[in-house]
Design a protein that fits this description.
With 124 residues, the protein is mostly helical. It is built from 4 helices and no strands.
Length: 124
């Protein structure tokens, strides 16, 4: 799971960099996915060490959950707001970040459940 965490972090970094450099308007808010991706990737690297894996992965999934909720909040508020909803690059980036983070959280939860069942089967 540590390798998947690193990949998810790199995807978020690429999404943030793509939004920043490819958006035409260089806004720091476009880098928000990268701001989540960097610590997630670093926690993935930390999780490569067996002794630190559990804590690093729990920290990474917490960041993933915060990233999902935070990225989805603005498009949902626009959808139910008074302004007409338009799908532009910013909203697309937010939805992409939410999707990546949601997939990551689901994968982590499945991994945590499997690890727990494995420990119980071993009698630890």
């Amino acid at each position: 799971m540590a390798n998947i965490t690193i990949i998810i972090g790199l995807l978020l970094i690429a999404l943030g960099a793509g939004g920043y450099f490819g958006g035409g308007q260089a806004s720091m808010t476009a880098m928000i996915p990268a701001f989540f991706g960097l610590p997630i990737a670093l926690l993935g690297v930390v999780a490569l060490k067996e002794k630190l894996r559990k804590h690093a992965m729990h920290g990474a999934v917490l960041l993933g959950l915060l990233g999902f909720v935070g990225a989805l909040m603005r498009p949902v508020m626009k959808l139910f707001g008074e302004e007409p909803f338009e799908l532009n690059m910013a909203v697309g980036s937010q939805l992409a970040m939410a999707a990546i983070c949601l997939v990551f959280v689901v994968l982590c939860v499945r991994s945590f459940i499997a690890a727990r069942k494995s420990r119980e089967a071993e009698g630890v």
